[in-house]
Amino acid sequence: MTDHTDSQTTQTTDTARQSELSVVGRFIKATELDTRMLGMIGALLLIWILFDIFSGGLFLTPRNLWNLSVQTASVAVMATGMVLIIVTRNIDLSVGSVLGFVGMIMAVTQAEILPTYIGFDNPFTWIIALAVGIAVGAAIGALHGYVIAYMGVPAFIVTLGGLLVWRGAAWWVTSGRTVAPMDSNFRLMGGGPAGSIGEIASWIVGLIACAAIVAMIVSGRRQRKRFQFPLRPVWAETFLGALGCFLVLGAVYIANIYYWPIGIVRRHIQAGLLEGEATTIFIGHGVAIPVLVAICVGIVMTFLATRTRFGRYVFALGGNPEATDLAGINTRWVTMKIFIIMGVLCAIAAAISTARLNAATNAQGTLDELLTIAAAVIGGTSLAGGVGTIAGAMIGALVMQSLQSGMVLMGLDTPLQNIVVGVVLVIAVWLDSLYRRAQH
Amino acid sequence: MSLETATQPLVEMRNMSISFGGIHAVDDASVDLNPGEVVGLLGHNGAGKSTLIKILSGAYQRDNGEIHIDGELATINNPRDAKGYGIETIYQTLALADNVDTAANLYLGRELLTPWGTLDDVAMEAKAREVMGRLNPRFQRFKDPVKALSGGQRQSVAIARAILFNARILIMDEPTAALGPEETAQVSELILQLKSEGIGIFLISHDIHDVFDLADRVAVMKNGQVVGTARTQDVDKDEVLGMIILGKCPPGATPGPGALSS
What we know:
The structure holds two protein chains of two kinds.
Chain A: H1 2-18, H2 23-31, H3 35-54, H4 62-87, H5 95-118, H6 125-149, H7 155-174, H8 199-226, H9 234-256, H10 262-270, H11 289-307, H12 309-319, H13 321-326, H14 331-357, H15 368-378, H16 390-410, H17 414-439
Helix pairs in contact in A: 1-3, 1-17, 3-16, 4-11, 4-14, 4-15, 4-16, 5-6, 5-7, 5-14, 6-7, 6-14, 8-9, 11-12, 12-14, 15-16, 16-17
Chain B: H1 2-6, E1 11-20, E2 23-33, E3 38-42, H2 49-56, E4 64-69, E5 72-73, H3 79-84, E6 87-90, H4 102-106, H5 121-135, H6 151-163, E7 169-173, H7 181-196, E8 200-205, H8 208-212, E9 217-222, E10 225-231, H9 237-246, E11 254-255
Parallel strand pairs in B: 3-8, 3-9, 6-7, 7-8
Antiparallel strand pairs in B: 1-2, 1-4, 4-5, 9-10, 10-11
């Protein structure tokens, strides 16, 4: 299966390179689409189709795609931060352990500390627990960042230490005891029928996203016009807008045709929340809340990385640290800020995974650091620094999760799953290096 | 000399010293620079020219010595401080962020922002086109990361960055090293233009021919020490070469601590 994946990617990139004047080449030039990103999306689609064939049609179902989106959310959130870290030639090996520790802190806050003060199921419980988690995550990130940037210890060592320290600390909070259950509002962040926004709200979110896509294209065109820069042809702009809207609305449609399981519908009927025959009631899940959270994080991080001074400094720092310093930029503070952001993202990911599990265990997030790094690297982040995109890393997370969940559906043994994931990671990075070399 | 006493020096570096692991890279060096003056800083590779100038630009921290700007004691501990005094530097290594485009490099650390506090890329690119158009009219590759540019183009970007922000003191470390004859002539023209605007320029080179015709004065360094300073009208090229190679101070020059005592 991996062979198919890489031959497909090679093909896509090869055609993109050779066809300077061909139809495809002109199309890509006019739309200014990123060929690397296209290759990755092509690979993802191929993985999906192959899994669907090999699992006997179990993969490309609304139910599996919806689950896939929820399972990807936590790693995708952390991958957005890992991009900035790897772009600046650092690494963070501690994100899985930080996730475990912060998850434990949030769980203890809402299940054991807050109830003695404000009672069970207080409407503010979830937000207090989340705020505590984010504050702890930010503090851990600040500590890592300070030691790395101001004390000059390599990030690899600091976060390797962090990997051990925070895993140990997660155990220490409750002496290894699992904490459950979570607050009912907090649990919404983990998805499930209740943790999805429903059909109507999903359509509304989808339409807002479409409006935003169109607005972005129009304002980009206006900006270019203002300074008389070359414009994309109108057909290319229209195509991009239509494609964006189609993808958004298609995703919403799929989330909406994944209906509530019949057991939950029956329970709602028994509780008097619904009326009618269980077999005739179809309630779509709609987009899951953790997915919305991940998308929002992706948008905010993309904005940070591409539209702000901070983001500009992050990439300049990755390209040439000395030059960035000589340009008068406080590179240490920039580095520290990156790790603070990573800590906050770990906290958000911890909230998603704790809520989804409805419990906090001290093994939570084990090996997530590797998934996160793999997602960023598959998504095109260069370990040499200076190159990477947030969207790419999120698609990388989706690729990693697709592989895992597809192999589970195919009934592959866990050791074999690990072998495949490892091989795919190496091949993906090798292909990427071939692609980059071919571009110069 | 009457001119120098009448106007206050723009920059005075007094008794500068810096050492790296026991080696005196710069040893008790003093140089000064007046407004609208070009001072050529000459010497062999490893003579300490770049190190001395990196102290002024804030890249290195001195062990000893004082920097005076407009006659007042200046505190320069990092590149930000130096830029605050209007000191702009074109480094020998160019110090460009290779992975971002020309406009991003020109405005690195001083980005133009929209009213919402976001990067105004379009405005920066427009301004970059204007500045680069003056310096290197054929330059068109504004969307490419600077690592994709030729040596000469990269050098133009580094020069454009230094003159973009109304520098008062310009440090040029081997500014024409990667340039062809035509671009070198353009840079010479630029130096004369900036000089006429009252900007003080330190021009660093190991090649006397680059500097002699443009400079008002030369300061020669050898083994981290100043051999001497001289007005270019008082000495000839051979005498300056003697200063560079032998450390011998001709009669027209003011000897420094590094001068050969004969």
